[in-house]
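Anyone opening a protein record will find just a pair of labelled lines. With that in mind, the following record should read easily:
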Amino acid sequence: MEKQAPSLGKTQLFWFFVHAQIGVGLFSLPNHIYEYAQSDGWLSLLLAAVIVQGVIYLLYVLHKRFPHDTLFTLCEKLCGKWIGKVFIVLLILYFVMLAGLVLKGFTQLIAIWILNKTPESIFMILFLAACLPMLFAPLKQIGRMLVLTAPIVLTIPIIAGYAFIYGDYLNLLPIGIADMSGITKGIFASMFAINGFIVVSVVLPHVGGTAKEKFNVLSAAHWSVTLIYVVVLLTSFLTFSHGEMKLLPEPFLYMIKSFSLTIIERLDLLFLSFWSISIITTYVIFVYCGSIGMMNLLQTTRYRIVVISLILCTTIVKFLPTTINEFSQLVSYINKPSAYLTFLLPVLLVLLSMVRKKEASL
């Protein structure tokens, strides 16, 4: 473990959370939610955000009682050595799986939208080469890079907001068309986009400030991300009809492609070029958290070797289904078990901490 790792600032914690949640899932989110909740997808997204806020509060409770423990050390401390190791393995697999899906989703996106005659393996190699310097850097430098790339995230609501001017607001009607079953399925459909929140429990011990201050920062970051997702969702619904929403795998990109500026014809290509930097930060966060868990599991300090090993594991996605529809189906299969892990594990840990009345080590 990084016992002597430099502390992150609260601003860095804010953007650590934002970059972990906003990744490649942003583009396909409207289509995934619309499949189940239709134009009421915004309600599914808000309900999912409320649930995530509840989990963030549980993570705050755990951090307040155990300020020097990460999620991995808490699993062993509260669940016992062997059961705790099982949860650590599950978390490592979860982080590696998310990193792999981010890698696959992004390389597939570039291959389809920009360079459709270049082998996907080339994108993967270039992407991983760009990630290595950041992964090999100390946590403090990773945090600085996240703050530096923050303006890229802020361009999303600015660009998408243009659709509020010319969009067809009748596309949002009728309100209440989806039943409770559809709303619930829409919540699970949004999991791939909002699943990254659990990573904060790995870095909280390295963040300066009180537990209450960190909780306020995380809450602000979470609702900022939710606002961005709601804007993307609503603008996609405003731009495309009900029939079109069922056919477009990445409505957000098609919406940007329809924008025509005086000096820029293909705004979607320019946006994807800049957005690749944000995808790199998301991938780095998941691999970093998985590496910390692996170091805890194996009781080793060979960080770089662990990082390289996990990176190689994420490249297995090269052999996954290659079409957009097959990849979407794969994501939907993974959403439920990953949601159960990230939502129920904090609940279990809080209950165990209450039952055993363990106090935070000083």
Summary: Residues 1-6 have pLDDT under 50 and may be disordered. Residues 136 and 361 are 30 Å apart (CA to CA). The radius of gyration is 20 Å.
